[in-house]
Each structure stands twice: as C-alpha cells, then as structure tokens.
Amino acid sequence: MALAKFTSSSRSNLLKPLTTVFSTSDSFRRPISTSTDPLTIETSVPFTSHKCEPPSRSVETTPQELISFFKDMAMMRRMEIAADSLYKAKLIRGFCHLYDGQEAVAVGMEAAITKKDSIITAYRDHCTFVGRGGTLLEVFAELMGRQAGCSKGKGGSMHFYKKEAGFYGGHGIVGAQVPLGCGLAFAQKYSKDETVTFALYGDGAANQGQLFEALNISALWDLPVILVCENNHYGMGTAEWRAAKSPAYYKRGDYVPGLKVDGMDALAVKQACKFAKEHVLRNGPIILEMDTYRYHGHSMSDPGSTYRTRDEISGVRQERDPIERIRKVILAYDLATEKELKDFEKEIRKEVDQAIAQAKESPMPEPSELFTNVYVKGLGTEAFGADRKEVRAVLP
Amino acid sequence: MASCLRRYGRRLSVSICEKRELSTACEGQIILQQHQQLQQTAKSMNLCSAINQALHLALETDPRSYVFGEDVSFGGVFRCTTGLTERFGKNRVFNTPLCEQGIVGFGIGLAAMGNRAIAEIQFADYIYPAFDQIVNEAAKFRYRSGNQYDCGGLTIRAPYGAVGHGGHYHSQSPEAFFCHVPGIKVVIPRSPLQAKGLLLSCIRDPNPVVFFEPKWLYRLAVEEVPEHDYMLPLSEAEVIREGSDITLVGWGAQLSVMEQACTDAEKDGISCELIDLKTLIPWDRETVEASVRKTGRLLISHEAPVTGGFGAEISASIVERCFLRLEAPIARVCGLDTPFPLVFEPFYMPTKNKILDAIKSTVNY
Ligand SMILES: Cc1ncc(C[n+]2csc(CCOP(=O)(O)OP(=O)(O)O)c2C)c(N)n1
Ligand SMILES: [Mg+2]
C-alpha cells in the first residue's frame, strides 16, 4: 500500500510520551501533543477527476491531526460495535445502520471544513454526528430512545441532528436529503458567508431521480454544494454494478465536475473536501465519490454475507482499513508507540461503556412528547374518543 | 395473535370464492384448475409464504407476467419473492435500481403493452416518490385516453403498518392517500389465505391495484391455505364474525386486534359483528350498510392517523345511508394525529383496550 511513501518534513519533531495524558484521562480527546508542525503525506492512490484538475496527492497534516484522526475513528468504530451489541440485546429498537469501515469519510471531511459549513446525510448517521461534535451520550441515548438523546429520544438511529454544528442530520428516505442539501447551499450563497453544504448519499441513492434534479438546479444556480457519494459498493444487497449502468459516480454529474477519492484514507478525504469547498464557492457544485466500505450488513437484520464473500470483507479490513492506515502512519513517523495507541483504544472502550451506562440512566421521553413538535403549537394533535383516555397526554 | 388468525383460517376456508371475474389468457387452464381443486389440499403457512405462492402461480399461469423491485430477485427484504428468479428466470423476476418513481413508471409502461407488471415497493413508507406515477399516470391512463390505453396489468405490492418498533419510516399506513384516487384499487388482506386469493385477484384484475401487505403478519399469521390457484373477489367485504349490538369495520393487521376486542366484549355481554373490508376502493358499502342497519352502531379502526383516514369516508357514507338507524355516534379508533412515533408506538396504536373502551361507550351511549 501507498503508506510506504512518506515525504515528512519534520521527523525530528516527534511527540513526547503519551503516558502523562493517560494518567489524567479526563478526556481522551485531548491531543497527546501540541505539535502542529506540518507534515506532508502522500495519499494512498491518486485522485481521479472529471472535468476538473485534481488536487495534489501531497496532503499537509500535523502529528496532532493524525493522532486525532486515529482517536476519532477508533471511537466511532468502538461506538458502532457497541451499538451492535445493544441492538442484539434489544436495548435499541427500530432500524439501525452502522458506519464501521466508513469512518475516514466523516473524519476527513470534518478536518477540511468548519462547523459553519453544513452537512446533511441519510440514515447511516451516527458517526457523521460524532464528527460534528456530537457526544457519545447523545448517541447512545438517542439510539435507546431516551431524553438525553440528540433528538430527545424521538428520532432514533436514523434521525440524529445537531443544529449548532450545522448538522442537518439523518434522513430515512433514500435520496431525499440531497435536494434539501441544495436548498441549504442556496441559503448559504445568499448569506455570502463563504460556507458550503456537504450532501451525503450512497451508491444506491445515486440512482434516485431527485438527485439529478437537484444537481441540475445546483449547477444552474452555481450553488455551493458538494454532493458526496459514499460509495460502499452496495445498496442493501445490491452490488453497485447491478444497479448502476455507470458506477463511476464521480462522473455521473455529466456537466458537473467530479473527483474520485479513496474514502478509506482520511487524508485523501480531507484533501478532496478542502479542494471541493474552494471549488464550489467559486464554480458551483461538484461530486466527490468516496470509495469506501461498510463492514457490517446494511442494517441489523442483514448479516451482510449473502451478497458478498467473507474474503472480500476481510480483504478490505486487511488492506484498506481506515484506522489501520492511520495507525501505520503514526507508527512509521514514530508519533506514538504501538502500546500508546492500544492504550488509547482501551480508554475509548471505557468512555463508550460509561456513556452507555449513563444513557441507560436517562429516562424515556414524557408521554406528552408524543404530541409536541408536530406543529409549533399542539394544533391538530388532539386524540379522539377512547384514545384520549388511554394516552393521558397533556396537550400543549 | 397467530392463534386468533388461525381461527379465521378455519372459518374462512369455506368461503373461498371460485368465481373468476377476469378474462385472462388462460381460460382452459382455469377450468382445469377448478376441476383439480376438488382433490387438492391445504397447507399450513404464514402470510409471507402465501404471498410467495400467489406470485409463483401468477408467473406460472401467465407467461406475460413480471415481478420486479428492489432486491426482489434475492427474495426481497421480507423473503416474499424467494425462489422466483430460480424458477422463472431473471428476465421475468428482476431487481431494479433504487428508484420508486422509476419502478412504478416502468411498470405502467410494461402493463400498457398488455403485460402483468407486479412491482414491489420495499416498504409502503417508500411509495411516496412514486406517488405521482400512481396518482397521475396509472390511475388516469384509461380515462384520459378514452379507453385506448390502460395499465390494468399493474399491481403494486407494498408492506405496510406497524411492526412493534419500526419507527417513522418503516411503519406507516398510507392507504388513505390512494383511496382518494379514482382509477386505482386499494386492497389489503388480513391473513395468509386471504392474501393469496386477493393478490391473485389483484394481479389478474384489469385495473391498476395497490396491494398493501400487513408486514406484522408476514411470519406471525399462520393458517391453512389451499395449495391450488384460487381468487377471492375484490370489492366484497366479508362478515367474519356475526353479532347484533355493534358493527366493527377494519382491514389488514388491525382485524386480529379488533377480533380480540370482540371476544373481550362478548364476556361483557356485547355481541359484535366484525367486517373485513378487504378492498378499500371501490369499497363494499352494501355489506357495511346492511350490518349497521342490523346493529345500529358502527366502529371503524385503522392504524393510520384518524384525521382523513379511510375511516372518515366510511363514517360519512354510513351516516348518509343509515342516519335514522344509528343509535350512537360512529366511533373511530385509529392511529393518532402524529407522525408514526418510535418510542411511543404503544400509545399511538389503536390497541385492543382502546377498541374495547370505544365498543362499550358506543353501546352504552
Ligand atoms: C425511497 C426509499 N426506498 C427504499 C428505501 C429502503 N432502503 C433503505 S437504505 C437502502 C439502500 C441504500 O443504499 P445506499 O444508497 O448505497 O446507502 P448505504 O446503505 O450503502 O449507506 C434502501 C433500498 C428507503 N429508505 N427509501
Ligand atoms: Mg451503499
């Protein structure tokens, strides 16, 4: 893999031991080093572009950033594995789609943009939410339908939002979030504050008509929107080639430029998103196709092994895993020891367990919440006849 | 619930309709089948298998029939289309890309050329991207072309309704939207036996049909289902429990809940008549009217939100027809006027106890 190719400028400036950080353990998010000395690392593979000049393969980063990539992705991974167990224990109900394998997209994207930029995605939204600064407690509480959840327990797995960080959240209808994203971008263009919207969708969603409708509108009006196709190569059980005449999703905007990115390489994602943000502010929309992979099945009812081979899954884990890639970079540059990284992971495990315990303490929403937020006021939410007696909700 | 449905099964197996109202391309075959029926047996199966059998029969009896939708050639998310591709080949049973508007539009075109297009929408919650195709294209094709064209061979299957923890987008009951559209039929079965016979009728009906399958019952409802090819009439409601004090009308999964309420009410000396509407449009007013004339009271129950639900239409029609016979206001025990909730599903649902309460208050009005 391309990890061997490093062009470091500051190998001498390595990080000091991590142990001190861990002994305090108040927050594993605290960087182990304040070193922000630039480091240049080559992306795994070159970008492939459509109707635009691709950005450079050399990505500027810092030891601090690499360590934070590692920690953030390791936390996302652990969180999703924990959600899997909670689902199996029936503590999470409803439909639940996990993101493990795709972490580099969420993390790399965040590294290139600010919280003033907007992100909107589909139902596979846990990690995107965490990327925007969502907490583990908010995640687990929402998953279990508790008041402490990011949507007050009313949304569940598919409906995470974080308004103050521009996360327009999780949408259940495949493809529907993309036109919304274009609307967000239109508002951003109006406000002239140089912010953009990232509208995420899957390879399956790429075949929905409304995507193309929205793309045309966005191109016509030069909207600062980046359509991010998270191509994990399957839409439920359907391999991309079965559903798409052209699985080159970055080219499917025809008149809209596109870039194909190794979505398992957080640095490549970061580079692409940085490039895309600048591009759309000047020229209107662009498509980023993130070549990625989901390890879990589509949702909790899909074992994920009937339409693809176990070899394929383990092959990706071995060759392309986004966390392992960053681990290798960190070790190769001697930014931390193997043991220190393992300790990080242990710490994360603890944090996740604590968040779950805390989430379990959070109460379910009040029954009256059934009727709130349908309208601004409780108009039209009256329950009739026998229902009223049964529900005993205080109508607002 | 399963045992309750099994009881339906026994009761209903005597009332299978052998009437064939459609002129299909295979008259001879039908006569042959009716003849063979006498020796044929029933087999215990769930609703999912019953649907699967109906699809097998549909494809077998009409070489110009096709089954398609998201992941259907792999069996579909509920396994209802299992084995069809193996049996009939990938030219007749095939996966489509993820695009509901495309699926339905494509089905209309296929049907307009004289084929039977059996389209699956993975969940009824995902039928909305295809709403325009159904409402504006499918429903009005015959009318606006002065009967030159139609898409009568189109049947859209979609699992609907609650499953206990489906949340906002895997639980909805959108039937009422489609009941507002002259030109399509809306059919909802309550049990495996019904599902097989009604689905075959829908597929062979010369009008476009939306067929909603109660997904809660896919595995839960088990009953004896005849192995042979049979059809149940559309637009014919069925009295599945006779009574004299109050009429209850419902469809789909809700009937087994209503049946339990009837049984409980009986313990309190209230005699309930329970009607399965089966076809929502065009619906069988006569059967409901006759029943209400007898009992003087009506309760309608469905999972969809009460406001603008199909219960409202039934209620209005019955008031028009039986005003002087009514002894109490018509009761509706339905879903609440909220989005389908995740954690609040038990509150939202028109449960047995809510129905029982409403039965009592209506009877004691
Ligand atoms: C309109 C609509 N149709 C169908 C579904 C059911 N469904 C949910 S996810 C999915 C597959 C989507 O695949 P993709 O876009 O590749 O996203 P991924 O799950 O791989 O992240 C399907 C068919 C839906 N939610 N909405
Ligand atoms: Mg996908």
UniProtKB/TrEMBL annotation, chain A:
InterPro entries, alphabetized: DH_E1 (IPR001017), PDH_E1_Alpha_Subunit (IPR050642), Pyrv_DH_E1_asu_subgrp-y (IPR017597), THDP-binding (IPR029061)
Enzyme Commission number, as recorded: 1.2.4.1
NCBIfam families per record: PDH_E1_alph_y
Protein name, per record: Pyruvate dehydrogenase E1 component subunit alpha
Enzyme class, broadest EC rank: oxidoreductase
This protein's record includes keyword Oxidoreductase: yes
Keywords: Oxidoreductase, Pyruvate, Thiamine pyrophosphate
Automatic annotation (TrEMBL), chain B:
Domain of life: Eukaryota
E.C. number: 1.2.4.4
Top EC class of this enzyme: oxidoreductase
Record's catalysed reaction(s): N(6)-[(R)-lipoyl]-L-lysyl-[protein] + 3-methyl-2-oxobutanoate + H(+) = N(6)-[(R)-S(8)-2-methylpropanoyldihydrolipoyl]-L-lysyl-[protein] + CO2
Gene Ontology annotations for the cellular component aspect, listed alphabetically: branched-chain alpha-ketoacid dehydrogenase complex; mitochondrial matrix
Flavoprotein is among the record's keywords: no
Keywords associated with the record: Mitochondrion, Oxidoreductase, Transit peptide
GO BP term (any one): response to nutrient
Cofactor: thiamine diphosphate
Localisation per UniProt entry: Mitochondrion matrix
InterPro entries: THDP-binding, Transketo_C/PFOR_II, Transketolase-like_Pyr-bd, Transketolase_C
Transketolase-like pyrimidine-binding domain: residues covered: 45-220
Spans traversing the lipid bilayer: none
Key word Mitochondrion present: yes
Pfam family, one: Transketolase_C
Gene Ontology terms for molecular function: branched-chain 2-oxo acid dehydrogenase activity
PANTHER family tied to this protein: 2-OXOISOVALERATE DEHYDROGENASE SUBUNIT BETA, MITOCHONDRIAL, 2-OXOISOVALERATE DEHYDROGENASE SUBUNIT BETA-RELATED
Quaternary context: Heterotetramer of alpha and beta chains.
Protein name, UniProt field: 3-methyl-2-oxobutanoate dehydrogenase (2-methylpropanoyl-transferring)
Species for this entry: Manihot esculenta (Cassava)
Taxonomic classification: Eukaryota, Viridiplantae, Streptophyta, Embryophyta, Tracheophyta
